[in-house]
Amino acid sequence: MSSHREAPEIAKDPVADNTDVYAFVSPQRPKSVTLIANFIPLQKPDGGPNFYEFGEDVLYEIHVSNKGTAKADISYQFRFHTKIRNDKTFLYNIGPISDIKDPNWNRPQFYDVVRVKNGKRKVIAENLRCAPVNIGPRSTPDYPKLANQSVHRMVGGRKVFAGQRAEGFHVDLGSIFDLGTLRPFQSLHLIPTADAMGVNATKTFNVHSIALQVPIKEVTRGKGRPTDPMSKRAVIGVWATASRRKSRMLDPETGRTVGHGPWQQVSRLGNPLFNEVITPMAEKDEWNFRAPDGDQRYEKYVNKPELAKLLPALYPGVFPNLAKYTKPRADLHAVLLTGIPEGVVDGFQNFTGPVPSDMLRLNVAIPPSAEPNKLGLVAGDAAGFPNGRRVTDDVTTIELRAIAGVTIPLVDPSFTPDKAAAGIEDGTTNDNPAYLNGFPYLGNPNGGYQTTPGDSAVS
């Protein structure tokens, strides 16, 4: 749900669909920052023989803004190409894949990495190997080994990984889109049923990740690594995009489409859930085509979010204070569009300037937390969302509580949040494969053979 099938047009183009973006100071390498962009949502692990892969006709990018303009000052570009080793078989692999160079892997993918700074392009890696998908114990008998081989070191102290990962985002999609139901509180819903535990809709699914680790000094303004959290230089804005050529034509000789013309952005993502639950349906496709520096047109939806109006209506009597609050949501405006300025939270700021723009904002001078709290900044952990986003941050709960009003007193001390606001959640926890302690942090993907499809129900 963070940005899975969040707009009508991109839902038809999953290979270019940007699902989640993460940005955090690397715990094992605190002088570096890790940037992760996920694509291709809701992958069934057993989806062969044509398993999921990056698009050869898609330009994937991770952008960094460090001058307060909400424009990309540094971009990392990723282009993929695929080889077919044996054109006489329909199989993805013709035996166990014991190594990422194994000839049994019939359809390996490779990629190049380009860094663009101030309009100047520099190739920093070529023909790097992707990790294969996790097929099963016979085809990919030692998947962690294959994943480790797919972590590549580059010049300048950089690391990169591209390949399949376990979905790290958890949410109760079936519940939330059934008229805003939150199972732990559904007895209080306008159409009540008995309370229940949340159901993680993304359990057993995979995504494709591009993970990049670079020195902090490479992505900040000026020279050196900022160490003062109050410095403007310490804050960067991060988002990711996918682009296609402006026109595509079907080649009847090959049965494939061929792109022509300049690149056109078709998907983007900064903060989790922005386009999903803030932008109206009629504007979601346009939002995906636009750059963050033009997000002023969406301010009105942040200042008066639809979900903040729906909660009191769907849960009568539960959010009386929220129902009466009519001021523009300056708290959400700061979190989602400008960053939090100095003076709101003691010893913290991630303000990127007055230009309203949907970006993850990361203060790189704040070190990784010794005891991370999945609720991030609202729980006193300044190293977590909305200061960037770690893979373990429970962004669904954080944003639900923010919309319900727990962050309003930060900017309006006269407001008292409703008691239910501090406990609101969708009731899910991450029961996907375990996160990793090191790069690329997201867990190894669910295997096609090992994964059991869930139960079905009709009523």
From TrEMBL:
Pfam families: DUF4331. InterPro entries: DUF4331 (IPR025566). This is DUF4331 domain-containing protein. It comes from Nocardioides iriomotensis. It comes from the Bacteria.
